[in-house]
Amino acid sequence: MMQDLARIRAFVQVFDAGGFSAAARQHGRSKALLSKYVTDLEDYLGVRLMNRTTRKLSLTEAGEVYYREASALLQQLDDLDATITDQTSEPRGLLRVSAPRNFGESTLAPAIYEFLRAHPKVTLDLRLEDRYVDLVDEGIDVALRISTLADSALIARKIADMHVVAGGAPALIERVGRPFHPDDLRHLPCIVDVNLQGHSNWRFFEDGKTISVPVSGPVRVNSPLAAREAAAMGLGFVVLPSYLADPLVARGELVPILESYMPTGQTLQAVYPHRRHLAGKVRALIDHLVAWFEKHPVN
């Protein structure tokens, strides 16, 4: 049985790698051994699975069917092995995490570093960047995202509630007046953070319905921290996540506006690819973050 699995795995590895030489390099096995395994498998099945030329490797019709089923079988076996391993060992290995830059630097990093202190066999690749990251293509284990809905192709778990704040500097309000309805912002200077959902169409709630207000102003920037600084200098009104707005509000440098119209329901989510088995290190990190933000809520 183990020999049969070795032949099946060799076949899948060769096709995934695009050839015998590439598979040999990736998996630390000899090209001759991989070739023998695939030939033995074809002899056993009595059918050719691969068309081999010096430049190209492709699957036969039978090979396509066998590859699809064999890949699923091997994935199930790998998942089963990983499940048993996770139940009997502590988290270990490389953990690739993606998060928004400013949130990661100001709020998330301490929580994750505390996780590393508790699990010294885990190493971290933390990628802080303000762009949409394709988890599968970029090999990310888990992404921390602030949003209302998860990507339908991914699995998400809520970590904590998040809030947004609209506000302006006292000098700005003195100069242009205080908006009392979201529509008032159409004619007032605003700082547009292009990372914000909707960009220059800000979303508010009125009578249970979402309203979208187009805004414009002297600054468009792809950083909430830079948007905050522009707002603090009185250049325009701004919408910010609470973890960036609250320190300025506490110091009197930013005055909240339109509180009763602000959207709710945003959450910090841990998002990961749709897999039957969630790696133990990822599950452990998510559990840790849920517990951390229960003790350190993001107001």
Would you kindly provide a written description of the structure presented here, covering whatever features stand out?
It is a single chain. This protein is of the alpha/beta class. It folds into three domains: about 1-90, Winged helix-like DNA-binding domain superfamily/Winged helix DNA-binding domain (Arc Repressor Mutant, subunit A, Orthogonal Bundle), CATH 1.10.10; about 95-160 and about 265-295, 3-Layer(aba) Sandwich (D-Maltodextrin-Binding Protein, domain 2); about 165-260, Periplasmic binding protein-like II (D-Maltodextrin-Binding Protein, domain 2), CATH 3.40.190.10. It is about 40% helix and about 25% strand. The chain has helices at about 1-15, 20-25, 30-45, 60-90, 100-120, 170-175, 225-230, 240-250, 280-295, and strands spanning about 50, 55-60, 95-100, 120-130, 140-145, 155-160, 165-170, 190-195, 200-205, 210-215, 215-220, 240, 255, 265-275. Strands 4-3-5-14-6 form a five-stranded mixed sheet, covered by helices on one side. The chain has a three-stranded antiparallel sheet with strand order 12-7-13. The protein is elongated.
